[in-house]
Amino acid sequence: ETDAGEYTCDTGDQQTTAAVLVKALPVLFKHWLKNEEVEEGRTAVLRCELTKPNAPVEWRKGDKVLQPSDKYEIRQEGTRVELFIYDAEAQDA
């Protein structure tokens, strides 16, 4: 539910109405991704932090959008976003 809309103050004899507009702030990065080096067969973890909790994000490798799978786990809790890359192989670089 949005807080934007028309609000009225009514005394019974008179009323006054005003509109409230809520301007959405852009989602920005508080902490950016950092380069990660991992041994073959291990799990690589990429983390970043946003200015807005639970904002929709998309993870990509090159142009390919990553989906949760045995290989990739995407976690998002509040403003923190993480990508786990399991069983790292050379082609995951």
UniProtKB/TrEMBL annotation:
Pinpoint the Ig-like domain residues. Answer: 26-93
What SUPFAM superfamilies does the database record attribute to this sequence?
A: Immunoglobulin
Q: Where in the cell is it found?
A: Cytoplasm
Q: Provide the alphabetized UniProt keywords.
A: Cytoplasm, Disulfide bond, Phosphoprotein
- Quote the Gene3D superfamilies the UniProt record gives: Immunoglobulins
What superkingdom heads the lineage? Answer: Eukaryota
InterPro entries named among the record's database cross-references? Ig-like_dom (IPR007110), Ig-like_dom_sf (IPR036179), Ig-like_fold (IPR013783), Ig_I-set (IPR013098), Obscurin/Obscurin-like_Reg (IPR052385)
Where is it found, in Gene Ontology cellular component terms?
A: cytoplasm
User: Any idea what this protein is called?
Assistant: OBSCN protein
